[in-house]
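Module 6 notes. Inverse folding takes a fixed backbone as the condition and produces residue identities as the prediction. Think of it as a translation problem where the source language is geometry and the target language is the twenty amino acids. Below is one complete input and output pair. Work through it position by position during the lab.
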């Protein structure tokens, strides 16, 4: 069963490698996790230990989008695509930064 809520803190992420490190630390992916966008979807949504929570709060997205807009866009697109067919529906909330 998936967790109710997880906060993904991206405030220290400056590139795709550090973003994947953050995802690894937050979601505790298995050792065979492929550090790729396909691997992210595979491990968050289709793995038997499904890690995508009912609510995913993302902190620091604005910072990431300023320092690495390509990785930020890939993350946003990957999450949006994977969330389309989820039952029960999941939510991604981007927290405002001051």
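Target side of the pair, the amino acids:
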């Amino acid at each position: 069963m998936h967790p109710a809520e997880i906060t993904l803190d991206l405030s220290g992420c400056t590139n795709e490698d550090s973003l994947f490190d953050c995802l690894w630390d937050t979601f505790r992916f298995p050792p065979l996790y492929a550090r790729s966008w396909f691997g992210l979807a595979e491990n968050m949504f289709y793995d038997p230990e499904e890690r995508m929570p009912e609510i995913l709060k993302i902190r620091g997205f604005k910072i990431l989008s300023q320092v690495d807009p390509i990785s930020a866009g890939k993350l946003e697109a990957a999450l949006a695509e994977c969330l389309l067919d989820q039952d029960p529906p999941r939510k991604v909330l981007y927290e405002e930064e001051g």
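Reference fact for the lab report: The mean pLDDT is 84.
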